[in-house]
């Protein structure tokens, strides 16, 4: 500690902390001046631990073996043996909101993230632009002398700000993290992900037949940790590690999928019972805990044909393989920390799921394309799924399992992801390991805990206060409370005694053992449905005493109407304080243009040059449900040229203008189904020299997703024409982008492979949006 003009240094309550220098007498000569020390840069408090914060994606309470489920997660179990298990850990029940709450320690609406980025609306709790008054744990730890990095999924950048042009203020590196290696959207194709390193787009999968993002991410995390400790062993690190697994697509290496062959042939109804019984054996739920019945809306295993049972079992094999493989990669990171001799003083917080497992499958037999089914209305054919069963888990499917499997993974609770009112959506599990501080190991903690508790836990463990201001901006108070009091005392009283829940107007309020909540109006797999003007009063409310009903199974609203009304009013009070209002039960409906920020408003001409890639859909030309013209100016060398001129999206939906064998070609994919693939191609290759290649698409008009006619012209002469019977109605992709001169991601058709860079000279590409 130092003292300079009466100020104790370092003052960790106001960030950034200026360097400290003791200044004495300064004379005109060196000999006449006092000896002076170099300025001291801030360092973390003595003994501050390294921190590894891990969170998987879409993993319910009953998925992992550690909590009674069928999926082996040995790294999770290994950390529990040396630490603590938490069986009443809660999330927000949805992705972006949980992630905002996790990194800020504030409730998700306080962090302006009441919904996922893609569905944000202008209201303060929902616009997705996180205020500078809501600083992140990355900012705080970096300013206090930690090395900080973020690996994997982000989904906290507004989708119109996810292009390589920035601004980057809400990207991980703009939120205080010194290094980022991962992806920005809701999910990633594990074999062809849209990865950024810092703010630079990279394609790490090129020329790698066995590439998988989870393995690549672990490699980068290991390299980063080793670099930190090799250069400055005394400096603690904070690694935020958030794989996109096990969110759809459920991708895993083939050999991992085969490990689970035949293990789920008994079906999801039986699995739910097995998991419940195992949870009791393990003691992760109390002996009197009740297994909630499966709601009548869910499909039953025995209603499937034998062929579809085989398909659905395969889906679960892929999900299990994805999560098990992910846990193995996390284990490699833990092993690397141990090899460095740092494991004892590393606080590892491993959260198994940012929400409950996803029941977003509308048919009950899973689906093969997330963007196709959930957004663009593609209904899977059972015969297609049966014929292509070997494609599940691989490159050419974005597979997701049945809502029946999701409900089994959320055993023993009611409901699933998005249903914040019920524990199946909001209660996951967590493990905390810190051998230097948590003695013994293997203990169970059952205090009510919440995802907002992680930031205060890390700060207390590191001996760092929550700052009053960051960069001159006064900080809003934390909503969470520290888990540290529970490290030594399994019977310590709860400190997080009140917590509201709200996602898509599914409402709940926990207070001192009681939970009041609404009954869902919209099933988890219904994207567009009935909406309500006043969800608080129009929804039915339930009441549960969780002190003697661990699984939220006995609605006692009729017996305690006064308690229910008390909690409903408490919910309204918390909602007002935390920017939850107005309540809004729209979901896919929020994607309508009138509900979203309008970028490039009125712009009809877009000019691009070679090397411009990875433009996300929100900032790319909107070629959906309209006519358009693409003009590419090229020079072809002697011997000809091939490659992409312009591409948007990929295998699961998109379009591309390119030269194939020298011939101008236009490919369109309404989806990944064979009947949704369209190609229009010239019969002759381009000759050497300068050419203008034009794709003219005349939209039929009418309902979104209608067809049109594609005409190819070279130097003004028509060279091919063909029909596109149907087009993408709502959204091209959740993760693939608009590219010039190459294709990043997956190909639109399998006539070429990525990146298929243009081998001639591409001068420019002009996209014109036309009426109709």
TrEMBL record:
Superkingdom: Bacteria
Pfam families linked to this entry: Sulfatase
Domain Sulfatase N-terminal: from-to ranges: 49-464
Keyword Calcium: yes
Keywords for this protein: Calcium, Hydrolase, Metal-binding
InterPro entries xref list: Alkaline_phosphatase_core_sf, Sulfatase, Sulfatase_CS, Sulfatase_N
Similarity annotation: Belongs to the sulfatase family.
UniProt name for this protein: Arylsulfatase
Organism, scientific name: Herbiconiux moechotypicola
């Amino acid at each position: 500690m130092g003292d300079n003009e009466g100020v104790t240094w370092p003052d960790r309550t106001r960030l950034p902390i200026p360097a400290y220098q003791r200044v004495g007498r300064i004379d005109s000569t060196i000999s006449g001046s006092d000896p002076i020390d170099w300025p001291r840069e801030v360092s973390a408090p003595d003994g501050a631990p390294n921190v590894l914060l891990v969170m998987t994606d879409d993993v319910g309470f009953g998925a992992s073996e550690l909590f009674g489920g069928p999926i082996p997660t040995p790294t999770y179990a290994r950390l529990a043996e040396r630490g603590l298990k938490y069986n009443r850990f809660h999330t927000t029940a949805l992705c972006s909101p949980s992630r905002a709450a996790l990194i800020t320690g504030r409730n998700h609406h306080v962090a302006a993230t009441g919904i996922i980025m893609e569905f944000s609306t202008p209201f303060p709790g929902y616009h997705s632009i996180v205020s500078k008054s809501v600083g992140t744990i990355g900012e705080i730890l970096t300013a206090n002398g930690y090395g900080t990095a973020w690996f994997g999924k982000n989904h906290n950048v507004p989708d119109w700000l996810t292009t390589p042009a920035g601004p980057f203020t809400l990207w991980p590196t703009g939120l205080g993290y010194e290094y980022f290696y991962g992806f920005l959207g809701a999910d990633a194709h594990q074999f062809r992900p849209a990865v950024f390193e810092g703010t630079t787009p990279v394609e790490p999968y090129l020329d790698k037949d066995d590439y998988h993002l989870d393995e690549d991410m672990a490699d980068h995390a290991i390299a980063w940790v080793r670099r930190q400790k090799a250069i400055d062993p005394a400096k603690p690190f904070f690694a935020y590690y958030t794989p996109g697994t096990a969110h759809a697509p459920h991708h895993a290496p083939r050999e991992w999928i085969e490990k689970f062959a035949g293990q789920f042939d008994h079906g999801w109804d039986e699995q739910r019972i097995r998991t419940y019984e195992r949870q009791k054996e393990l003691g992760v739920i109390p002996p009197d805990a009740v297994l909630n019945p499966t709601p009548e809306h869910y499909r039953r295993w025995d209603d499937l044909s034998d062929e579809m049972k085989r398909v659905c079992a395969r889906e679960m094999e892929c999900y299990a393989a994805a999560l098990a493989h992910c846990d193995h990669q996390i284990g490699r990171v833990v092993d690397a920390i141990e090899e460095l001799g740092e494991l004892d003083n590393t606080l590892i917080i491993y959260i198994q799921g940012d929400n409950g497992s996803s029941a977003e499958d509308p048919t009950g037999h899973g689906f093969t394309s997330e963007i196709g089914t959930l957004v663009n209305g593609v209904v899977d054919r059972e015969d297609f799924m049966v014929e292509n069963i070997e494609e599940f888990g691989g490159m050419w499917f974005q597979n997701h399992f049945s809502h029946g499997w999701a409900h089994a993974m959320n055993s023993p609770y009611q409901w699933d992801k998005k249903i914040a009112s019920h524990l199946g959506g909001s209660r996951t599990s967590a493990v905390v390991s810190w051998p230097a501080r948590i003695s013994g190991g293997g203990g169970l903690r059952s205090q009510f805990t919440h995802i907002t508790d992680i930031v205060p836990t890390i700060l207390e463990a590191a001996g760092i206060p929550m700052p009053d201001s960051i960069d001159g901006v006064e900080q809003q108070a934390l909503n969470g409370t520290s888990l540290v009091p529970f490290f030594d005392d399994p019977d310590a009283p709860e400190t997080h005694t009140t917590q509201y829940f709200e996602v898509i107007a599914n409402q709940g309020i926990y207070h001192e053992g009681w939970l009041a909540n609404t009954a869902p109006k919209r099933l988890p797999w219904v994207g567009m449905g009935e909406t309500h003007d006043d969800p608080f009063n129009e929804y039915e409310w339930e009441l549960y005493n969780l002190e003697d009903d661990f699984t939220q199974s006995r609605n006692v609203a009729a017996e305690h109407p006064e308690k229910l009304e008390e909690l409903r009013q408490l919910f309204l009070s918390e909602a007002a304080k935390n920017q939850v209002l107005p309540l809004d039960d729209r979901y896919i409906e929020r994607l309508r243009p009138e509900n979203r920020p309008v970028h490039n408003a009125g712009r009809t001409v877009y000019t691009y040059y070679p090397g411009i890639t990875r433009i996300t859909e929100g900032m790319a030309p909107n070629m959906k449900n309209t006519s358009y013209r693409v003009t590419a100016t090229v020079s072809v060398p002697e011997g000809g040229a091939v490659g992409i001129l312009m591409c948007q999206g990929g295998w699961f939906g998109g379009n591309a203008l390119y030269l194939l064998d020298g011939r101008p070609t236009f490919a369109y994919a309404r989806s990944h189904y064979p009947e949704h693939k369209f190609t229009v191609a010239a019969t002759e290759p381009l000759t050497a020299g300068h050419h203008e290649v034009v794709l003219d698409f005349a939209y039929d008009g009418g309902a979104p997703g209608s067809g049109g006619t594609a005409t190819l012209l070279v130097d003004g002469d028509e060279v091919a024409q063909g029909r596109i019977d149907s087009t993408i109605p709502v959204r091209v992709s959740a993760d693939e982008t608009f590219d010039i001169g190459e294709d990043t991601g997956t190909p639109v058709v399998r006539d070429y492979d990525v990146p298929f860079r243009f081998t001639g000279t591409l001068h420019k590409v002009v996209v014109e949006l036309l009426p109709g």
